[in-house]
Design a protein that fits this description.
Distance between the termini: 31 Å
Structural class: mainly beta
Helix content: under 10%
Strand order of the largest sheet: 15-23-22-17-20
Number of strands: 23
Strand content: 35-45%
Shape: globular
Length: about 350
């Protein structure tokens, strides 16, 4: 059995010519790739950013140690293959058609940007901090448009927001190509949880749709029994507005279809934690076959509804061996790639 390029993927919402958003004064459609460098050229450099343009690092925190974990992160261009195997193992069929594009990814480096600690990835590297600590992220932009890092869940002062605000933008909300900025965020008591970070610069949201997002977790240091195994999963899509491809792909961690999305593994007896984030224009429902867990409300569930930028964490003691599916239960998302394997031995 072999499907044509669009046969199964016609499940996706019809977006031909559909209005998506207005960016830099131009209307964008989901089915046509946005020319980000051209759009960025029409955005004025905000006054505070222009005033700091002669500085190597425009952050007021540059060069300071803040008494907590410290990361060096670059935003880089990366050639990304959405379906490395070109197969859907759930249906045991080949997926035809082009599925690679020029993406953006965050990449972690050793201290002072000495050496990469792995490739640029989608999602980006895990940022980890304990309650009561300060998280410092030294950031450098290596793509061709202004980019930022904006966190969720953690505390930060106004100039550390990492968000574009028009003429009111601070330097951290408009990090120009080849420039640096140091973000300092504080994990106050009560902020423990599964959060995220993403670009929130003037080209938002297209750079996010090209891959600029990642996990941020604030740990509770009083929790003396951490999970044996934990997984960080992003439910998101790659639309033609970001990729230039003819189809939209529903993805988990940058890939589509079981056998390409993360194959998760655990053993019976493990304490397992899932950290799930939804990050595109749609609502998703995370479902794990053969398992159930307790929602923060106290309800026992096996499916969690999540809106854009919502995060959810659940834990359980693994007691059910087998090969299981995890997936979004929005059927048009499930059947266009948002599914994967969870293998318990």
């Amino acid at each position: 059995m072999d499907f044509g390029e669009f046969d199964r993927r016609k499940f996706l919402v019809g977006t031909g010519g559909a209005f998506f958003c207005t960016l830099a004064g131009h209307n964008l459609a989901l089915d046509k790739e946005a020319d980000l460098p051209k759009l960025a050229s029409g955005v004025r450099v905000p006054p505070k950013v222009a005033a700091a343009s002669g500085l190597e690092d425009a952050s007021p925190a540059a060069g300071k140690r803040a008494g907590g974990p410290e990361y060096w992160i670059k935003a880089e261009k990366v050639k990304w293959e959405i379906i490395p195997t070109h197969r859907d193992q759930m249906m045991d069929v080949r997926i035809k058609g082009k599925s690679h594009f020029n993406a953006y990814g965050y990449r972690r480096y050793t201290a002072n940007f000495g050496a990469p600690m792995g490739p640029a990835s989608i999602p980006g590297p895990l940022l980890e901090v304990n309650e009561g600590e300060t998280l410092t992220v030294h950031f450098q932009n290596e793509v061709d448009v202004p980019i930022t890092l904006h966190p969720h869940g953690i505390f930060y002062s106004n100039e550390m927001d990492g968000a574009y605000k028009g003429k009111f933008t601070d330097p951290g909300g408009f990090v120009q190509p080849k420039k640096k900025f140091t973000y300092v965020w504080e994990a106050h008591t009560g902020t423990a949880g599964n959060w995220l970070y993403h670009d929130h610069g003037p080209m938002d949201p297209v750079p996010v749709f090209k891959g600029l997002f990642g996990p941020l977790i604030v740990r509770d240091p009083s929790n003396l029994t951490p999970p044996d195994t934990e997984f960080f999963l992003f439910l998101h899509s790659f639309a033609p507005v970001a990729t230039g491809l003819r189809s939209q792909f529903e993805c988990i961690n940058g890939h589509a279809y079981a056998g390409n999305t993360p194959t998760l593994q655990a053993s019976v007896g493990d304490r397992v934690a899932f950290h799930v984030v939804a990050l595109d224009d749609d609502f998703h429902t995370f479902h794990l076959h053969g398992h159930r867990w307790t929602d923060p409300s106290g309800e026992v569930i096996d499916t969690k509804v999540m809106g854009p930028a919502e995060s959810h964490t659940f834990e359980f003691i693994e007691d059910n061996a087998g090969r299981w599916f995890y997936h979004c239960h929005v059927f048009s998302h499930l059947h266009t790639g948002m599914n994967g394997w969870y293998i318990v031995t």
